[in-house]
Here is the input.
Amino acid sequence: MKTRTLTRLALMTAAALVLSYLESFIPLPLPGWKIGLANVVTLLLLTADTPPQALAVLVARLLLGTLFSANPGALLYAAAGGLLAFGVMFVLKKCLPGRLSPVGLSIAGAAAHHAGQVGVACLILGSTAPLAFLPFLLGVSLPTGALTGALCIALGRAVKREE
Amino acid sequence: MKRFFKQCKPGDLVAAGAVLLLALAAALLFLPRAAGAPDCATVQIDGVTVRQIALPAEETVSVDNGVTVRVSGYTAWVEESDCPDKTCVRTGVLSRAGERAVCLPNRTVLSLTGADEAIVAGGVR
Here is the structure.
């Protein structure tokens, strides 16, 4: 791998980690949701047509984020949500090329992320109780997905200028 | 702002609409209906029922995984928990049958059951 690519990926991973950390300070009025700002990085790499890089940064961000946070148990949920979201966004981008902008991709990704987390929660708890959170979380994925997608569009232009 | 909307595509609305429909379907399927007064508060860990309290009651239950549940009258809530995010505590007071508070790190579910809503003892697999 070229040094330049390696450096860029390292920077992206760091950026994603910082975003996760910063958004943990935003007070959450309602249980269980977050804006998912770190996904802007995943989106940027996906829309740059480099899905393997997006996946690499995602996995790195998940592992490092767990190390840095006080909550190792959260890795399972974050991984389930993050990987499912990546999978959905990747498939959508491949199968419907040009039909979805980062906003649509992001909304679908956010919904998949929450669905993955609820699914894992049901498996771990051995109960269907977490499903009650699903309607609310899916609804929330609309504005959060749109916001992350918008940030991706805005930043995408800035990143291009740096090239 | 307008430049942003120019970037969006019609597919985005379809995606948003699909997610919205899924949310509504999930609401119909998974949200507890307006049920009668609850008659029992249940605490489950890993899907196994560890405490069942018939309502009305006044009790404080300290489960040994770090979660404290309060029952008062026909309501119940998670008073405190040693989990990092405290989502369970912030769920607030449960007052209707079918409502639940979930603590993922402690793998604990507090739920109210009533005549119309039944949770199979031992959890649902």
